[in-house]
# Entry
Amino acid sequence: MRFQYPLVVAVAAVAALVLILLYVSSARRRSRLLAGAGLATTRPRRDALRRHLPQALFLVAATLLLLAVARPEAPLSLARSNGTVVLAFDVSNSMKATDVAPSRLAAAQAAAKDFVDAQPDGVSFGIVAFDDGALLTQQPTTDHAATNAAIQRLRVNGGTSLSQAVLASLTVVVGKTVTLPREGEPAPDLGYFGNATIVLLTDGDDNTGGDNAVTAAGLAAKAGVRIETVGVGTVDGATVEVDGVQRATALDEDLLTRIAQTTAGNYHRADSADALHDVYQHLDLRLTVQRKPLELTGAAAALAVLLLTVGGILMTTWFGRIL
# Structure
């Protein structure tokens, strides 16, 4: 425990000592007067309790009030979800598939909004939409209403590039453009962002090849960013119409697992709307434990008032008045 005004603590200690000495002196003088008048009590223990308990309560209450002025604080360990979560949505044409009702994208949007609403204020959400490329649709913010509005605006279009999704999400996290290193070049030093998580929502049907996506995930791992991949769709797949052509699309669970495991993350299958909601409930956002000072001024003052009240009740009950 610490005090914002430690000098007041010293004053409280001196004041409490002075009050104790004054009370002891007064009690002894009163005892001598009663003894001289032949009025000594025949039940000293009970009378002593009645005489001294209310005054003791008043003394403790006065000390607590002085300590409250000193603004006491106690460090409190709080488990609190905080940091940055980037929700990267696949908005390619394959996300129109209805093997997850009403469609893969619509189900992902609905579950994501429920997930955002369930998070505490300390979590900042960024939104990335990707197809052949990737587009940042919202910078990280703790405004959950704005996040849900950005999610609701997503529409399907184009193919799928998981590497661009990871790189764009990393760009949001580190605050500068992130690209894959050229062949023979070392991986860039992006810094360390251990409180950031990328949630990649996709059917994993990558049109550009998966090796670049795994390489991009390696950059995330080096920066301390974990990727949680969510496979939206069924293993059997579905058929979607793109520009008048029927195209088969199915989950690529192997690729999504490799991406997640590269960053020590997890792959989650979401083959129904209910499964999507269940996935969100089990996402690990890295709860951090923070030591936050908790001011005890109000508690000290409340306890002092309680003691004063009890002391007053005892005095009026035992003596008919407050001495």
